[in-house]
Please model this.
Amino acid sequence: MRASFVPEAVEGDARAGRVEVAQGSFSTPCFMPVGTRGAVRHLTSADLTRLGVEVVLANTYHLMLRPGAEVVRDLGGLAAFAAWDGLTLTDSGGYQIFSLQPRVDDDGAEFRSTYDGSTHRLTPESAARVQADLGADMQMVLDVCPALPAPKAVVRKAMERTAQWAVRGRRAFLDHPNAPGRQSQFGIVQGGIDPGLRAESAERTVQVGFDGYAVGGLSVGETRSEMLDSLDGVTACLPTDQPRYFMGLGDPVGLVEVVARGIDMFDCVLPTRHARHGTVLTTGGRLNLRNARFTTDDQPLDPGFPASPAHRWSRAYLRHLLLTDEPTGRQLLTLHNLAWLLDFVARLRTAILDGRFVEFRAETLAVWS
Model:
């Protein structure tokens, strides 16, 4: 089903609204927590509901290996399998082409399982079918994401393959008996940090005619300025009445900057990964709870965010849990970081609705740059 963007307010290129898909809708800008194996690390679907999460991302590569896409399908699809009442999005396996460096040819990519070493092959067609079995509300076409920096020839080849795979993946999606009426399929723009390749990729992806559009292959090793310069010319090529998704971004500065350029959706492991390592997001910036200065600190994690699920516990106590490897500590820090970032995005949205985005952006840059 074609995903639609319904605007509520626009300030410059920043926009707030709602995205409508077959099974529901969600407000934008939207941050999607990453539940790689069908769960956000240390949290349950009930936790996510209490936090106000609207969309959760899951990883196609991991779920097709364990427990297997057919198992998820037979148990009612990803949301039913995880007892999750919200919406879901699955990536295509393209990030694993970046991170696991499988053997890639024009037909697809051959992986070794991280679980048992067995060999598996993903093609644009099989990625669409696997995601149809997983049953997420939104699925991604298979793409090729090169690490950056990379020679222009490498980036060009990845972009060309992504464009060719887009046509094949879209055809497989539309030919599937169940997917088109139940899911929305997003195309992915590649092209590294070359503005010309980015614009070409965007135009070719739009020509295929996807239900929504994503920007991939950024925030993978380039500088922040290179990332933003590469994005500048992309959103102008994308339809205004469909959602725009920046893949793999979750820091406050990054979020306000891509929203300023017309992005609606983003996902990242940053808040949960930070939490596991003791880094806490606060209204005053990041703090590292492993620092000895918090040993006797009786303040809450962020006095400026009393709505935190971890507000009742002191920094000293949470540091103790972290350093003694008590799982409760990682759970509480994860709840805090996700709650904080979701609140940040909610305030970002409100700023656009109230015509204060320029001010909000400046305040964010002042604290987090």
In short: The chain has a mean pLDDT of 96.
